Amino acid sequence: MAYFDPTTAKTPVWEQQECDTSKSFAIFCCYRGMGPSRTLEKVATQMKAHGGTVLKWYGTHGWKARVAAYDEHMQTITQSEIELAYRMKVKEEAKKTVDLIFKAKRIVEHDLSVLLERAEAQQGENREMVLDRATAVKLLDRVTILERLTTGASTENLSMDDKSKPRTIKHIIVDAKSDKEEVDDE
Q1: How far is CA 4 from the centre of its chain?
Q2: 141 and 126 in contact (C-beta within 8 Å)?
Q3: Which of 14, 76, 102, 143 is most buried, with most CB under 10 Å away?
Q4: How confident is residue 110, by pLDDT bands cut at 50, 70 and 90?
Q5: How many helices (H) and strands (E) does the chain have?
Q6: Which of 67, 66, 40 is nearest to 54 (CA)?
Q7: Separation of alpha carbons 121 and 112, rounded Å
Q8: Greatest Cα pair distance in the chain
């Protein structure tokens, strides 16, 4: 009686091999499908097979190596599916976040254009500010954060005192207003 050698298999070892009969392969498939809790006794009972015959096939047909290869194969498939599902979920969430950021940016841009139109519509030299300084700074701050989020830049607060750090439009405007007020005060 020849023993099955998994290294000579022409197909994956968990599939039907030349040594398998229809009946032995059906019992092997049942055994293989039981997962980690599989036992020869369980498969013999479930398939109504003689325990001695199942034990013989287990040894001569290399069931131990075949189910180990099958379990490893299934683990690889399961892990790949988990990773694919995770990547798809991350991609979907990223798209939702980017869409939300662009939607918020469009709202802010719209509101800024309305404010600019109001300011341009005012005539004369004594034009009043459409926004007070604090509101303008808050609005610019939000625009800057959105700008940074959409470009992938850092959103951390930067010190206005350190001129060597990256600057945004908001910082330049606020600095210019501060400088002008200091000149006016003198």
Answers
A1: 44
A2: no
A3: 14
A4: confident
A5: 6, 0
A6: 40
A7: 14
A8: 108
With pLDDT > 90 as the criterion, what percentage of the chain qualifies? 32
CA distance 44 to 140: 75
Residues with Cβ within 8 Å of 131's Cβ and at least 6 positions away in sequence, in order, are: 115, 139
**Structure-token pair, residue 75:** 């683990």
11 contacts 17 by C-beta, under 8 angstroms: yes
Q: Which conformational region is residue 131 in: left (phi greater than 0), alpha (psi within -120 to 50 degrees), or beta?
A: beta
Helix (H, G, I), strand (E, B) or coil at 81: helix
Q: What length is written for the chain?
A: 186
**Angle subtended at Cα 145 by Cα 169 and Cα 183, rounded to the nearest 5 degrees:** 30
* Eight-class DSSP state of 70: H
Model's pTM, two decimal places? 0.48
Tokens encoding 150 = 């959409």
User: Which of 70-84, 108-122, 123-137 shows the lowest mean pLDDT across its residues?
Assistant: 123-137
Rounded CA gap, 176 and 165, in Å?
17
Identity at 68, one-letter amino acid code: A
Q: Which two tokens stand for residue 24?
A: 């032995």
d(CA 177, CA 109): 22
